[in-house]
Structures are given as structure tokens and as C-alpha cells.
Amino acid sequence: MDQQVALKLIAEKAYDVGYSAKLHFSTYDIVEKAPGWVGLISLVIGVLALYIDFLAAKHVSALITVIGICSLYITYYADSKEQYFQAGNKLTELLDELKGMSARCKSNQQFTAADQDQLDRITTDFRSACQRKHILFSGWLAHKKFFWDHQIDWIAEHREFGFFRDKIPFSVYALMVVILIALVGGSWLAAHPELLLSLKEVCTHE
């Protein structure tokens, strides 16, 4: 196999493995740390509400209640959090193997049959190590861990990363669209109060 083609294949596989490792660690971190943060924030707001009238308002209390309900969603992953941690460690080991393979391929200026066997084995191990489900927002944290905290220059050398295409999760764009639609819809309804009155009459009509 041509050396440049091989280095590109290794870099693409390293991106898949490295990002997946951060995704598993992100799920573990959220499950491990979020309940404690939720409890601490709720406690602090509850104490401050004794002195600050704004924090005692109903909408603040409702928001704290919603956050508490979200913490119940997190507990569904509590029993399997160690599996995510172990999977993250395994995937990190595979990433280290790929980094060594890339350096060896560049140094020897060739991609041998033994390298191909190792790459095939890494691909198999990668697929078997991954967990199928991940907690909400773990993808956002994984992007931060992979692109901003991890050293990926050796991957980017042969696998170019676009800022808008790769470094920002697609769900961020989806959220921005939802917010934009809500703002436009809210502004339009505010400009046509008669529609709100008509809707209110329909809903309250007996």
C-alpha cells in the first residue's frame, strides 16, 4: 500500500478511536460528577433564597425542580459507568498503538503486511469495545476533550479537520435552529396578539 494512503487510513482510524475514547470518558464524567454539582447548586440556591427574594420566585424553584428531575435521568447510567471508563481506557490504548504505527510507517516509509494485520485487529477491538448508548451532552464534552484538550497534531497532519464541519457538534447547529425558530415565532406572535387571544378563546371555550 502507498505510504501516504496508509498514513491517511491510520489518521482516519485514529480520529474514530480517539473521539470514541473521549466520548466514553465524557459519559463517565457526566454520570460521576453531575449529581454532585446538581446537589451543590440546589443547596446553594436554597440557602441564598432565604436572603434573595429573586431566588425564591416560583420560576427559579421550578427550574431547580427540573434540574433535579434531570439528575434522575443520569442515575440510569450509574450502574454501568465503570464500563464506560474501562472502554475509554481500552480505546486510548488502541489510539496509542495507532500513533506508534503512524510513526513507524513514516520512519520506514512503508506499510507492511504486519501493519495491515495490526490495523485490522485494532478495528475489530475498537468495534467490540464501544458502548452503544451515551448520555445527553456527552458528544459536546467529547468534542472539547478531543479537539481542545488532546494532542492531535499527528492526526491532523493526514486528516484535515474543519472548524465548522468537525469541531462543532451537529447538535449545536440543531439547537441554534430551534432557538432561532422559537425567537422568530415568538416575535411573530407578539406582533399579532389577536392570534393569541383567538387561541385563548378556543382553549377556554366550553
Kindly describe this structure.
There is one protein chain. By secondary structure, the protein is an all-alpha fold. The protein folds into two domains: 3-161, no CATH class; 169-206, no CATH class. It has helices at residues 3-48, 58-75, 81-108, 113-129, 138-149, 153-156, 163-167, 170-191, 193-204. The termini are far apart. The model has no long low-confidence stretch (mean pLDDT 84).
Shape: elongated
What is the residue-averaged pLDDT? Answer: 84
Order of helices and strands: HHHHHHHHH
Give the C-alpha Rg: 24 Å
Helices, by number, come to 9
The percentage helix is over 70%
User: Sheet bearing the most strands, described?
Assistant: none
From the N-terminal CA to the C-terminal CA, the straight-line distance is 76 Å
Which blocks of ≥5 consecutive residues have pLDDT under 50?
Answer: none
Count of individual beta strands: 0
Total separate domains: 2
Question: Which structural class is indicated by helix and strand composition?
Answer: mainly alpha
User: Into which percentage range does the β-strand content fall?
Assistant: under 5%
Question: What labels would you give this structure?
Answer:
2 domains; 206 residues; mainly alpha
Set out the fold topology:
Blueprint: H1 3-48, H2 58-75, H3 81-108, H4 113-129, H5 138-149, H6 153-156, H7 163-167, H8 170-191, H9 193-204
Helix pairs in contact: 1-2, 1-3, 1-5, 3-4
Task: Give me a quick take on this structure.
The chain is mostly helical.
